[in-house]
Design a protein that fits this description.
The chain has 482 residues and is an alpha/beta fold. The protein has helices spanning 12-24, 35-44, 61-71, 85-88, 94-100, 114-120, 125-130, 190-198, 212-228, 234-255, 259-278, 282-288, 296-311, 319-330, 341-344, 353-359, 362-370, 378-386, 407-424, 429-437, 440-443, 448-456, 461-468, and strands spanning 4-8, 28-32, 49-53, 76-81, 104-107, 142-145, 151-155, 169-174, 177-182, 204-208. α9 packs antiparallel against α10 and α19 crosses α20 (429-437).
Length: 482
């Protein structure tokens, strides 16, 4: 069943072109050119979203927005402004519009295609699936010329699909040349995927960046189901959450910290919490973790995984602390998007003094990016700001020392350093841990209790429980990791 959208705009030509485009995207459209008819439509029907022009007459756009806030407070509303001067001359403000209930604000001129992005950004997975034009079987394969930068890559073994394919799926022939092997709405064909994997030795599939949100939505839901199952191995659960987190961080870095992006991040963090909370064999996966992808997105996931596993060892741990820290870890390096690109390709040890000083500003730059976002709490912001502060005062940006550093931030500092050791030196987790513990200067960067609880991350929790039940004079923390 197609999602219904109410279009309200005094410009008949724009109404027609927007309506035509959205119908092609499989929305059901109701269009009106005045506020009175808009309110009547809202009284008589329910809509997935309302696209409302600020300059609507016969009940103004603001009057209609007030009507919606009073009678349909959960209604999604895209407020369209005829030009930037509406804001510049003080006729209204983004803050006022959002207080009145506008979900999104779009300032003309913009491409009609932008409406698709605005609407899809607020679709639940159920909305997405109901809005797909389904067909039985598979469509013919089609070759296309599309720039590589417009695609997101996923390993073929890590791709899962609903019965109806949620988006177009491609394989790459060569640079900028692809074959569409599954079309949105097709009945999913594992056989077609396996043919390319087994007969053509294809390792990766591709989908448009614009479909990345759908990928995250579906795989987030699937990850939640896998984590809840006692039959699924811990390694499979970790792999699924990693894939979701990787693509989510890519989406956040490209789309910015929009409300719908942050909300989706909370779902990722909930899955991370459930993983560290419920998976008794997680320690085995952490000891044997081998996939050392050096990308920034995988780095953020690994920092999140090890940080939350450390927090789980503390008596004061809670869902709130674990999810807040997971969110901070996913975005701990977001400030780097404001640094020169050539700096991002350098390791810290290869930077000159000027580059190093610039690099050390990225925690502050990260907080600047998320500062005005009301959906991100202060704990997350403080962890991001302090994630490079060291217990011995050698960190940055402020050189804080000891108890002046948030414990959660110092945990992230350790996890961040540890993941760099793993990836940069190509070491498995036990070897990376040994290297860290043998370097006293390194160890002094962290609160000793954090180091002690980090070691426990790699130990069977049942063994820890047994040791904790021994008399205090015979209780020993096993620091040997093999």
């Amino acid at each position: 069943m197609a999602l219904k959208v109410l279009l309200v705009d005094p410009n008949e030509e724009w109404l027609q072109s927007a309506s035509k485009f959205l119908i092609e995207q499989f929305y059901e459209i109701k269009k009106v050119n005045n506020g009175k008819d808009a309110q009547l439509a809202l009284y008589n029907d329910k809509f997935f979203a309302v696209i409302l022009n600020f300059d609507t007459k016969n009940h103004s756009g603001m009057q209609v927005l007030k009507f919606i806030r009073t009678n349909h407070p959960s209604q999604r509303v895209v407020m369209v402004l005829e030009g930037q001067e509406i804001l510049d001359k003080g006729r209204t403000s983004e803050e006022k519009l959002k207080k009145m209930g506008a979900t999104e604000i779009a300032v003309k001129p913009f491409e009609i295609e932008h409406l698709k992005d605005l609407l899809e950004g607020h679709q639940s997975l159920g909305d997405v699936m109901s809005n797909i034009k389904r067909r039985e079987g598979q469509s013919d394969e089609v070759e296309v010329d599309t720039p590589d930068e417009e695609f997101t890559k996923v390993r073929i073994d890590d791709f899962y699909s609903a019965k109806a394919v949620l988006f177009d799926v491609y394989i790459q022939l060569r640079s900028n040349r692809y074959i569409k092997i599954l079309h949105s709405g097709d009945t999913f064909s594992k056989e077609r995927i396996d043919k390319y994997k087994n007969e053509k030795n294809v390792e990766n599939l591709y989908f448009h960046n614009s479909d990345r949100r759908k990928f995250v939505q579906y795989h987030n839901q699937l990850a939640a189901k896998l984590i809840a199952s006692k039959q699924i191995p811990a390694s499979v659960k970790v792999k699924m959450v990693k894939n979701v987190a990787d693509k989510y961080i890519q989406e956040a870095f490209h789309q910015g910290m929009k409300p719908q992006v942050v909300e989706q991040g909370k779902e990722v963090c909930a899955n991370i919490f459930n993983l560290v909370e419920k998976e008794k064999d997680l320690y085995k996966v952490l000891k044997s973790y081998e996939e050392l992808d050096p990308s920034a997105f995988t780095h953020a996931f690994l920092v999140s995984l090890f940080s939350t596993a450390i927090i789980k060892q503390f008596d004061w741990q809670s869902r709130t602390t674990i999810e807040a820290t997971a969110m901070a870890c996913l975005f701990h390096d977001i400030g780097k998007v404001k640094l020169p690109k050539e700096l991002l390709n350098k390791q810290v040890k290869d930077m000159n003094d000027e580059e190093l000083e610039l690099y050390k500003t990225h925690p502050e730059l990260g907080v600047e990016i998320i500062e005005g976002n009301r959906l991100i709490n202060n704990s997350v912001k403080q962890i991001i700001l302090q994630h490079h502060e060291a217990f011995d005062g050698t960190g940055f940006p402020y050189g804080k020392r000891g108890s002046k550093i948030l414990t959660l931030a110092n945990i992230v500092c350790l996890a961040d350093d540890f993941v760099h050791i793993m990836v940069d030196d190509k070491l498995d987790p036990p070897a990376a841990l040994r290297k860290m513990l043998m370097n006293q200067e390194q160890v002094s960067r962290y609160n000793s209790m954090i180091v002690e609880n980090f070691i426990k991350v790699f130990v069977d929790p049942e063994k820890i429980v047994k040791e904790s039940s021994l008399p205090s004079n015979s209780r020993v923390v096993n620091k040997k990791v093999s």
